[in-house]
TrEMBL record, chains A, B:
Protein name, entry field: YcjX family protein
Protein species of origin: Modicisalibacter tunisiensis
InterPro entries according to UniProt: YcjX-like
Length: 468, 468
C-alpha cells in the first residue's frame, strides 16, 4: 500500500514536469490496434536512424534521439507483445500479428533534445527523457459504459430496440430459446446458463457479420470469467417500464431478479473496475476506426458502426455532467481519431477518407470541441501493405495499388472511390466500393523501420508537445 | 459492501445451525477432480432413486431424499460444468469430461429426514435441508504455499536443489538460456520474458513427463495473467545465501531486483488472494491422488509425487504455528484423502492401494492427527470404467478386469499387484505394474446414476454427520 502511494507520488511529480505521459490506443476489434502499436514502438525505436517521421516536428528538426523499452509498472497487466508482432511480420510470407485479447501495456523511454526555448531562443544543450506508457485495450469495453446508466429492466428494453432485421435473424436461435422464459419463473441455473451461451453466440455471430454495437462487451472476450454467473445474463424480450412494479414484486429467486442481480454485478465488478483502475489515468487517447471495412460491408453494418462509435465516444464526453465525468473524473486532454488501413485505397482518396470519418463522428467531435478537448481526425496506415502505382489505359493514367492479397496473389487494382460524406442509398446500390485485404509487405532488411502512412502525423499530435 | 456483510452473516447463521457446508475438492492435474465432482453431484441428484449409496448412513436408512442445484453465491467464480461433463459421458463412445482449468463452484440443496435424536429416540417428522457448496480447484495452487516462506533468493536456492537428473534434462533449454544471465546485469524486459517462457515450457514438459512438484503453479494455468510481468520470473541458478549482501546492494533495475520484485508480487497478488478469498472459508476437503498413475510412471516420478503431496498437504497443517494458520486462519475440520481410479486394478488390490496411499502420506497424516483434525484415507472410482471378472487358466481362477481401452479395444486383463508399501528398488526392476487407461462405460439409460466404487464412503465421511 505504502509502495503504491510512493509510486503514485513519483508518477505525479514526473508528469508535473512533463516527463511522463500515458497514451491509450483503442478501437473495435480488427480496427488495427496491434498494427498501430507495433509500428509506433518500431518508429520510435528507429527514430534518428531509418524511421521516416518528417511530420513529427522534433524528428524533422533532428532532436529525436531514440527510444528504448523499460520495465512497466503494473506487473499484473500483460505486456504488449511487440517482439511476437515483429516476428509475425518477418515470417515468409509476412503475416499480420495476432490480435491482443484484453488490456496490454508497454513503457518506452524517449530521448530527445529540447528545442529553442525562452526569450533568447537558446538551444538547450542536454538531452531529456520522456517516459511514454502505452496502453492497448478493446474498444468493446467502452461500449459497456451506457450500461451503467441502466438497470436490468431499462437495459432489456434498450436491447430489444437495437434488434434490426438482420440482427434479429442472427439472434433467431436465442430468441427461440428465450421465448418460453417468463420473468416470474423460478430461476433454473442450467437453463439460464444455456440461454446466456446462446446470447453470447448471437453476439459473436453479429461481430463476424460485421456488426459493432454489441453489449455486454465482455461476453466476446470472457477470459477468466468464462462460465461464471456474472457473464450469464441476457435481456428479457417483451418486458418494459410499464411492468416495473409487478416485476419488482416477484420473488428473489425469480428469473427476473436473478438476471437483475447478475446485471448489477457485471456493472460493479466488470465495467467499473476498468474505468477506475485504467481509463481515468490515461492522458491521451487515439481511437482507431476501420471505416473502409464498414464501407465494404454494406449499409446496415455501416449504420451499426456509426451507432457503435457514437456509444464508444461517449467515454470521452467530458462535459461536467456526463456519465463518465461524474463517475470516474478522467483526465484525457487530447484525442486523435484515425481511419486506419489508408493504404487500402489510392492516395487521392485519403482526403475523402478523413472527411467521411469526420462525418461519421460529427456529433461526438462537436461535443468534444464544446468541452474544449482538442481532437484531430486523420487517416493513416500503421504498416503499409501496398505500393501506389499508376496504370495507363486508352491513353489515360489512373491511380492504382499494388500488393499481395491474403490469398497470396499479386494484384494491381483500383479499389474504388471513398465517399466524402455518409453514403446515400444510391452509393450502396452502385456498390462502388470493394477492397481486398493485403498481406504486409516483406521488409528489405530486418533492421528497417516499418513502412507507414502518416503514423508520424498521429505521433506529432499525440506526444509532439511533450517533446518540444 | 453492506450486501456482502449481510450475506456473510446469513452464511454464518446457516452454518451455525449445520445447514450449510463448504466442501472443497482438489488434486494435482489428472487426479480425477472433474470425474469426482461430476459423480458426486450425479449420485446426490439420484439419491433415493437409482443411486447406490449404501455406505452412506442416511441413504441406507432411506432418509436421503434428493438434491437440486441452486444459484451459487459468488457470481464471479465459474460454475462447475456438470451438464457438459454428463454430455461427454453420454457421447458415443463415451469420453471423459474435459478437465477444469481453475476454481469452479456449484451449490446443491440436499433434502433429508433427520434421524433418531434425543432420549426418546423419536424420529423427526419433517424433512430438512443442507446447503452444500462444492468447490473444485487445482492442487497445483497449493504447491505455491511454501513459496510464501521464501524470498526470491532462498526460493532460487531451493529450486536448484529440486533439479534431479531427469528434471535437469527437461530443463536443458532453459538452463542454457539462463546461463549467461548475471544478477547484476541491467534487466532487459524482452530477454527476461523469453527466459521466463522457457522456464514455463520446462514446467509444462515436466508435468507431461509425470512430475508433480512444480513451482510456481500458476505458470501452468496462467489465464488472464498470460504475458504479464508477474508471471515472468524464474529462479537464478548459482546464487545462494552466501551472496545476499552483495545481491541486495545491486541497482534497482538489475536482473536480481527485477526478478525479486516479480516474485514478491506473485506472492502478494497471486498466491495469497486464493487462500484469503477461498481456502480459508472451506469447511471440509478431499484430496484426490492418482497413485496408480505414479506407480506406472516409474521410481523418479513416484518420488516426485511423494514430494509434491508432502508440499500440497502443508496447506492442511493446522498446527498453531504453521504457515497457513498464521497467515490465513483456515477452518477445515475434516479431511479425506483418496486414491482414485481404483477400478483400474482388480478389487483384491484395493486394500493395498489404501495402505500405499497412507504410506505415501504418512508424515502429513501424522501431523493432521496430532493437530486433532480427523482424516480418512480411502480408495475409490468416481465413475467406474471397468467390470470385475474372473478368468480360468490351467484350472485356477484369477481376478481380471474387463473394459474398453482409450484406443477403443475391448480388453480383459490383470493389471498387476499394487505394493502395500512404498516400493523398493526391486519392485521397479521387476516392473510388476502396468495399467491401461479405460474409457468410461456406456450407460444403460440416460437417467441412470453413474456407476462408482466407494464414492458413497467418501460422501459419508465428508458430509454424513451433517445429515444425521
Amino acid at each position: 500500500m505504502r509502495q503504491t502511494l510512493a509510486r503514485e507520488v513519483t508518477n505525479l511529480l514526473e508528469r508535473g514536469r512533463d516527463r511522463q505521459l500515458r497514451l491509450a490506443v483503442t478501437g473495435l476489434s480488427r480496427a488495427g490496434k496491434t498494427a498501430f502499436l507495433t509500428s509506433l514502438v518500431n518508429q520510435l525505436r528507429h527514430a534518428g536512424l531509418e524511421a521516416r517521421l518528417d511530420l513529427m516536428a522534433c524528428a524533422r528538426e533532428g532532436r529525436l534521439l531514440g527510444a528504448r523499452r523499460v520495465a512497466q509498472q503494473d506487473l499484473a497487466v500483460p505486456r504488449f507483445p511487440y517482439d511476437e508482432a515483429m516476428a509475425a511480420l518477418d515470417e515468409t510470407p509476412p503475416r499480420w500479428p495476432d490480435p491482443t485479447r484484453g488490456i496490454s501495456e508497454l513503457r518506452l523511454q524517449i530521448r530527445y533534445r529540447p528545442g529553442r526555448h525562452g526569450l533568447l531562443g537558446m538551444v538547450a544543450a542536454d538531452s531529456a527523457t520522456l517516459t511514454l506508457d502505452l496502453f492497448d485495450y478493446p474498444g468493446e469495453w467502452l461500449l459497456d459504459l451506457p450500461l451503467l446508466e441502466h438497470d436490468f429492466l431499462s437495459w432489456s428494453e434498450r436491447q430489444q430496440a437495437a434488434l434490426t432485421p438482420a440482427r434479429r435473424e442472427l439472434a433467431a436461435e436465442w430468441l427461440e430459446a428465450v421465448a418460453d422464459l417468463t420473468p416470474d419463473a423460478a430461476a433454473d441455473e442450467a437453463e439460464l446458463a444455456a440461454i446466456a451461451e446462446r446470447y453470447a453466440a448471437t453476439l459473436r455471430a453479429a461481430r463476424e457479420a460485421g456488426f459493432a454495437d454489441l453489449q455486454p462487451g465482455r461476453f466476446l472476450l470472457p477470459g477468466d470469467l468464462a462460465g461464471a454467473p456474472v457473464l450469464q445474463f441476457f435481456p428479457l424480450p417483451g418486458i418494459g417500464e410499464a411492468d416495473r412494479q409487478a416485476l419488482e414484486a416477484l420473488p428473489e429467486d425469480s428469473v427476473y431478479h436473478t438476471l437483475s442481480r447478475r446485471f448489477a454485478h457485471y456493472q460493479q465488478h466488470v465495467v467499473k473496475p476498468f474505468y477506475r483502475e485504467h481509463f481515468r489515468r490515461f492522458d491521451r487517447q487515439i481511437v482507431l476506426v476501420d471505416v473502409l471495412g464498414a464501407l465494404n460491408a454494406g449499409p446496415e453494418r455501416f449504420e451499426d458502426l456509426s451507432r457503435a462509435l457514437a456509444t464508444l465516444m461517449r467515454s470521452f464526453h467530458y462535459g461536467k455532467r456526463s456519465l463518465v465525468s461524474r463517475l470516474f473524473a478522467p483526465r484525457i486532454d487530447r484525442l486523435a481519431i484515425a481511419a486506419t488501413k489508408a493504404d487500402h485505397v489510392t492516395p487521392e482518396q485519403h482526403t475523402n477518407l478523413v472527411t467521411l470519418l469526420e462525418a461519421l463522428l460529427a456529433e461526438p467531435i462537436q461535443d468534444l470541441r464544446f468541452a474544449d478537448i482538442p481532437v484531430k481526425a486523420l487517416s493513416l496506415a500503421s504498416i503499409r501493405a501496398t505500393q501506389s502505382r499508376e496504370v495507363e489505359r486508352q491513353g489515360r493514367r489512373f491511380p492504382a495499388l499494388r500488393g499481395t492479397t491474403q490469398a497470396g496473389e499479386e494484384a494491381l487494382l483500383f479499389p474504388g472511390e471513398v465517399p466524402a460524406q455518409i453514403p446515400e442509398a444510391d452509393f450502396w446500390q452502385r456498390q462502388g466500393f470493394t477492397f481486398d485485404h493485403f498481406r504486409p509487405l516483406p521488409r528489405d532488411a530486418r533492421g528497417d523501420a516499418l513502412p507507414h502512412i502518416r503514423l508520424d502525423a498521429a505521433l506529432d499530435w499525440l506526444i509532439g508537445d511533450k517533446l518540444a
